Design the sequence.
């Protein structure tokens, strides 16, 4: 898969393309269905056209939390036999393209066919319609993928994550919800209570419900079991901003500044404010036992 990543005016391609286009945040089953339909057409090359950063980030002029970052999308897209991932740098000029200009951009990069969902919108303020696209391209409109009588969408998955329902999120993503980030320095209290915790820079990732989780952690080229806390550490060392910290089982290495992948496996409990440090430590021991039984280690 060739990655074409640039501002829209600098993206070049001359191969005839069947594409699907959209934000594809999460690359969930609905998105996967569109990509698989693209791949059925044998008369052109196959591409996914997506945007980075997420348009809401630019349009609302404030940080926007997403299920996937650019590198995740590339990694997930590369698991399909696509010819191209076209990643348009979403900036103000691109956001202001009118319908005609947007269509001219698609024509310039040799798009011949589009596979899209029923609600597809494009161009400035999303005023471009499917009927407009049909005048210039072959358009294949796919029906919504439905789960529990609800259309599969990024928002629906975020709703499951915020309820701590990782199982449903997993079904719709077709994988565990995963965050990638670097290990930051904390207040060095963790190691003092027998539970050193790697603080993860979760950047603009959408975080699941606050509380304690069984997680799997990939670091130093190896998968480990771990227990994570998403919260404010109310017992010792209260933190104004939310933090994601992980104690990795059977592990003792300095991993500051290293990149880690975190797979959220199971929600265990809410974060509590304990009456003492010892009470917190007693609970952490119980949490560790629970993780060991879930992980069977
Ligand atoms: C699995 C796990 C569960 C935790 N649960 C709680 C909790 O319920 N309440 C709380 O106040 N802190 C909780 N903590 C946070 C610890 O208090 C925190 O790890 C400690 O403050 C270390 O901070 P430091 O990384 O800045 O050194 C938990 C941490 C982990 C790893
Ligand atoms: N089992 C472990 N789980 C998580 N981090 C560990 C572990 N063993 C060693 N470490 C290291 O210790 C650091 C966490 O120690 P801690 O005292 O909580 O400091 P900090 O407050 O900087 O997070 C991690 O960032 C990592 O480099």
Sequence:
């Amino acid at each position: 898969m060739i990655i074409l990543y640039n501002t829209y005016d600098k993206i070049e391609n001359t191969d005839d393309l069947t594409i699907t286009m959209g934000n594809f945040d999460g690359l969930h089953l609905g998105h996967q269905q569109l990509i698989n339909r693209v791949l059925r057409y044998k008369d052109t090359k196959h591409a996914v056209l997506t945007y980075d950063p997420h348009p809401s980030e630019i349009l609302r002029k404030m940080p926007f939390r997403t299920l996937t970052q650019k590198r995740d999308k590339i990694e997930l897209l590369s698991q399909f036999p696509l010819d191209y991932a076209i990643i348009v740098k979403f900036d103000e000029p691109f956001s202001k393209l009118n319908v005609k200009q947007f269509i001219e951009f698609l024509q310039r990069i040799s798009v011949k066919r589009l596979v899209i969902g029923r609600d597809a919108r494009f161009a400035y303020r999303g005023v471009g319609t499917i009927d407009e696209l049909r005048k210039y391209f072959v358009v294949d409109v796919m029906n919504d993928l439905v789960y529990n009588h609800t259309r599969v969408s990024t928002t629906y998955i975020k709703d499951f994550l915020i309820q701590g329902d990782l199982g449903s999120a997993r079904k719709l993503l077709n994988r565990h919800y995963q965050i990638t980030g670097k290990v930051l320095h904390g207040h060095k209290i963790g190691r003092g209570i027998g539970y050193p915790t790697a603080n993860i820079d979760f950047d603009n990732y959408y975080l699941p419900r606050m509380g304690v989780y069984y997680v799997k952690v990939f670091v130093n080229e190896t998968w480990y079991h771990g227990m994570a806390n998403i919260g404010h550490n109310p017992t010792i060392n209260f933190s104004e901003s939310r933090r994601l910290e992980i104690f990795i089982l059977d592990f003792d290495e300095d991993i500051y500044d290293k990149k880690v992948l975190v797979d959220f496996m199971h929600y265990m409990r809410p974060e509590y404010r304990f009456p003492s440090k010892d009470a917190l430590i007693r609970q952490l021991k119980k949490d560790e036992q629970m993780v060991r039984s879930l992980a069977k280690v």
